[in-house]
Amino acid sequence: MSGTVSVKELVDEITNLEVHSGKEYLEERLITTEDISRPGLELTGYFDYYPEERIQLFGMTEISYGNKMSAKKRLEIMNKLCGANTPCFVVSRYLAVPEEMTAAANKHHIPILRSKLPTTRVSAKLTDFLSGRLAQRKSLHGVLVDIYGLGVLITGDSGVGKSETALDLIKRGHRLIADDRVEVHQQDEQTVIGEAPRILRHLLEIRGVGIIDVMNLFGAGAVRSKTDISLIINLENWERDKQFDRLGNGEQKVTIFDVDIPKISIPVKVGRNLAIIIEAAAMNYRAKTMGYDATKAFERNLNELISENSDKK
C-alpha cells in the first residue's frame, strides 16, 4: 500500500456518505490505510492497542453501548478515540450521533460522517474504495478495451496498430478504458484493475488523424472508467521464420504484481482484420473459462479418428 487519500476525496467519491460535522477539516485529515476499525474494546476503556490511524466506524452495537455510559464517561472515551492520526468517524444507519462524539471530534478537528447503509455495507464500500486508491500502482504501455465484459489489454511495439485496432473494436460496440498508458493496481490475490490516467481519459490517438474523444464521437456507451484485466493480447509484426501458436495449446502468462494473466501473441500482417481476431480470441478465452476448450475438442476428435483408422487395419 502507498500514498494517502483525504477524507474529502472519500466523501466526494462514495455515495451515501454525508458530512455531519467538521466539513472544514475534510481536506486536512488524511487516510493512510484501507483497514477499518470498529471500536469495541476501546469503548470499555482499553486503549493499549488502539489503531488510531484507521477510520473509526460506529454501528448499532457501538452507539448502543456508548449510550449506556454516563455523559462524563462517554466524553472521556470519545476524546481518547480522537487520535492525532484519526482521519474521521463514520456512523452507519443514520444513527443519532452522541453530543459527546461531536464535541470531542470538533475539539480535535476530526470530521464525522454518516450513512444510511448498514454497518457491514458501509465497511465494504470504504474498504473497496481505499484498497484501490491506496494500492501500489504502475503504468503499462498498451490499450485496454472491454470486450463483452472482458478486460483485454492490447500490447505491442509502437506503431504496430494498437490504437487503430481499438478504434475498430469500439465501432463494433466494445468499450475503451485506456489508450497508450494504462494505470494498473492489484485489487486482491486474483484481480488486477486497469484504468486511464486522468489526462488521457476517453481519448484515443490515431496516427494521421490526431487525438479523438471517444465519448464525444461514439457516446457514453463506448467508454468505461476501469475494468479487471483478464487477458493480454500482444500484437507482433509477422515474420516468415517466426513460429506462432496455431492450436492454442501453448499458454503464456504475464505476471503483474502477484497475479498471472494469460497472454496470446497475434501476428500482424497486411490484410488481417485484427479487431475481429481479437474479438474471437476474447470469446474463445471466455469459453475456456466456462469449461469448453476448442483445442482439447480438436485433440479428442483427432485421437478418435486415429483410433478408428487403426481399427480398420
UniProtKB/TrEMBL annotation:
* Key words, A-Z: ATP-binding, Carbohydrate metabolism, Kinase, Magnesium, Metal-binding, Multifunctional enzyme, Nucleotide-binding, Serine/threonine-protein kinase, Transferase
For this protein, what is the EC number? 2.7.11.-, 2.7.4.-
Residue intervals of the HPr(Ser) kinase/phosphorylase N-terminal domain? 5-130
Cofactor(s) listed: Mg(2+)
Record-linked Pfam families: Hpr_kinase_C (PF07475), Hpr_kinase_N (PF02603)
What does the domain comment read?
A: The Walker A ATP-binding motif also binds Pi and PPi.
Per the record, the similarity remark reads: Belongs to the HPrK/P family.
**Can you state the subunit structure given in the record?**
Homohexamer.
Catalytic positions are 141, 162, 180, 246
Region (Important for the catalytic mechanism of both phosphorylation and dephosphorylation) spans which residues?
A: 204-213
What remark does the entry add?
Both phosphorylation and phosphorolysis are carried out by the same active site and suggest a common mechanism for both reactions.
At the top of the EC hierarchy, this enzyme's class is transferase
GO molecular function per UniProt: ATP binding; magnesium ion binding; phosphorelay sensor kinase activity; protein serine/threonine kinase activity; protein serine/threonine/tyrosine kinase activity
According to its UniProt entry, the function of this protein is described as: Catalyzes the ATP- as well as the pyrophosphate-dependent phosphorylation of a specific serine residue in HPr, a phosphocarrier protein of the phosphoenolpyruvate-dependent sugar phosphotransferase system (PTS). HprK/P also catalyzes the pyrophosphate-producing, inorganic phosphate-dependent dephosphorylation (phosphorolysis) of seryl-phosphorylated HPr (P-Ser-HPr).
Protein's recorded name:
HPr kinase/phosphorylase
Q: Which residues form the HPr kinase/phosphorylase C-terminal domain?
A: 133-301
Any GO BP annotation: regulation of carbohydrate metabolic process
